[in-house]
Amino acid sequence: MTEQTEASVRAEVRAWLEANWSTDHSLVDWRNKLMDAGWGTPHWPTEWYGRNLPVGLQPIVEEEFKRIGAVGVARVGIRVLAAATILTHGTDEQKKRFLRPSMTGEEAWCQLFSEPGSGSDAAGAVTRADRKGDHYVINGQKLWTSGAQKADFGLLLARTDWDKTKHAGLSFFIIDMHQPGVTVQPLKQMNGHATFNQVFITDATVPANWLVAGEGKGWAVATTTLMHERRAADSLRSWGAAKSDRPGRIYDEERAEAEIALAPYKWYPNRAGRIDLIIPRAKETGKLDDPAVRQEIARLLTLSKSAEWTARRARSAQEQGRPQGPEGSLGKLAASHIARAAARVHTLLSGADSMLAGADGPHAGTIAEILISVPATSIAGGTDEIQRNIIAERVLGMPKEPSIDSDKPYRDVPRNGAG
Amino acid sequence: MKFSFSSEQEEFRAAVRRFLADRSPTKEVRRLMDTESGFDRDAWKALNSELGLCAVRIPESMGGHGFGFGEHCIVLEEMGRALLCAPYFASTVLGAGAILNAGTPMQQQALLPGIASGETIATLASTEDGGSWDAAATTLTATKSGSRWHLNGHKSFVLDGHSADLIVVLARAPGTSGKDGLSLLTVQGAASGLSRRALTTLDPTRKLARLTFSDVEAQLLGEEGQGAAPFEKTMIEAAICLSNEMVGGAARLREDALAYAMMRMQFGRVIGAFQSMKHKQADMLLEVELAKSAAYFAAAALDEQDADIAVTASLAKACASDTYLQTAIHAIQIHGGIGFTWDNDTHLWFKRAKSSEALFGDAHLHRERMMAQMAAPTPASNATA
Lengths: 419, 385
Known about the structure:
The complex is a heterodimer of chains A (419) and B (385).
Chain A: H1 6-20, H2 27-37, H3 58-68, H4 79-89, H5 92-104, E1 109-112, E2 128-132, E3 135-146, E4 153-159, E5 170-176, E6 182-187, E7 196-207, E8 211-212, H6 218-241, H7 249-262, H8 268-271, H9 278-285, H10 291-319, H11 331-350, H12 366-373, H13 384-395
Parallel strand pairs in A: 1-4
Antiparallel strand pairs in A: 2-3, 3-7, 4-5, 5-8, 6-7
Helix pairs in contact in A: 1-3, 4-5, 4-6, 9-11, 10-11
Chain B: H1 7-23, H2 26-33, H3 41-49, H4 69-82, H5 88-102, H6 105-117, E1 122-125, E2 141-145, E3 148-159, E4 166-172, E5 182-188, E6 194-198, E7 208-221, H7 228-261, E8 265-266, E9 269-270, H8 275-303, H9 309-335, H10 346-358, H11 363-373, H12 379-384
Parallel strand pairs in B: 1-4
Antiparallel strand pairs in B: 2-3, 3-7, 4-5, 5-7, 6-7, 8-9
Helix pairs in contact in B: 1-4, 4-7, 5-6, 5-7, 7-8, 7-9, 7-10, 8-9, 9-10, 9-11
């Protein structure tokens, strides 16, 4: 195989796009073409819909897609994590069955890891998977499952062996969400939205050949999924913002897909604190002249700007092929501080109006939604406390938390609701 | 805008760090902080003969190396880390900075090579007893008779003002007020009529002096009556340079406190194993890295002559002021009782954090400046409108 260079990749992808791209394609037809040609997921192996493209050359492909306005493969939601996980740990049969429809957008996924009894401690899952002949029988409850009501399949973490230790007793499955034993219930949050679901699983079944990487390997597989989670969150944001407003059948279909996919996340900018509204609000409320409020605004902007520059420092080091310093691990914790500080300043700016919501509230309820959404920031995707442990242990090399539940049979470990 | 250092810059940093580790261990810091001049002539010479540090940002045509603020701030960050006792900040940031910003090409040619080589130690005298960092607060007068200038009044909080060879002075024409009538002038340290007194400072590693001028002969620097703008530019640069010095000190405090927590045993294990310590260390890392990013970004913005530089400078200084002091407070707390003793080194940085907090304006003042710059009228100007 000839070596791939920036120029050769650019020439190749450009020629292919010029020969194949048309806005008249249906979304699914076009994405199938991409999968056949390997340009939808060029960093994947050649034998699985990819071109073995080095990560460093991927921006070239993206540039060429952007240049011509070509639509890419489906990138929203858990499907990216599912594909990455199956690509790494799945059998050839699983890859053949699941990779293509995930990327064309025909099949949607959800992630069934967290449970009512295991939040920060995901490896403490107690959903059971019991082998019965050629299939497993699943019983348990999952929580914080985004997209479960629309998902065709779930990435399931379940316990197959209660005599083994915590991590060693876990296995990883692909579960069909469309079966009688699976019930999805939206979970209403304190801000009134229902982005996540509870999933009740009662005697649901999974064929034995949908076990990923063997019994007892569940935690290792789940770690792969979690590793990809943050990257997926980033692409969700950029993709949501970069939707094309051009006319054409394929764009219409893509917009419809995005509208549905992003609807549950409409409040996400508000949970981050809406720094963009601070100065306009200060002007319209007349509080911009209050010296105490000015101090608080400046504090908030200092925090937010320095966090933005820290993220750019981390990216810049990475782009130059150098290892990130500690600055790469701090974004999540910084975001919590920013959101909390922003909520405080929005309250200062709104005064009595901060008691009002909906149509009576400032900015048609947006300010109220900020105030009641910000508490999610320091919890979702890993609490601040877990983040601090991670920073202390992995970045600063401080001792790990003592583990008192990892070296005995899991059936003997004290846990929620088993006391 | 550049967001990371080049490999050349990292090599330069490593060389400066090695030199300072060798020349400015805390034993030496403790020796020098008890002297009146506050620095060691031999180490000062070595700093220039071996590494040419005073020349870093001075143009090549004037005996310098012609680097930018990026490199200058690397030096300052490392000096803040090592708590170097030397008139480096006064001479290169304030003295040379004012001359670069205000001086005519001929004056720069005459004055800067000496500063670049380290032979001349310069400083800037602007603040007076009132402690205002605002040019408009200047009361010291410069009187012109023919082509000669004479200064009368006082200056205070002058960095290394008691030992400097060359002092740039902010002065006003008699009868003027506000930012009108301000000029920058240079005075020799040994000029007649100039009396200089080293002040007793809370932070013995940073020397300050009070200067009294009685008909002291001075040379005009740049244009008469046009001193406010170059002075303010110099102060923006100084705030950014100091922020970089400060984040160096804060990072050192954080690292030393971590090393102590990983060594100190209580209740049968190192105190660093306790979650309260781990979380405090994680918070310290976050604060220090954010302050570093602000300081680095501000230095890069100076080199790129960013239009928002005044906002960025104030942001970086406010961030560094809060962070350095908070890190010092945490560091003493982590050390426990030993951290409050004279023999433990933590207080040396704690005191530097305190003096740096107020120097060129505290966080409160810089936050207000940020707001004033960001198209937000100050409460005072709004009240009169």
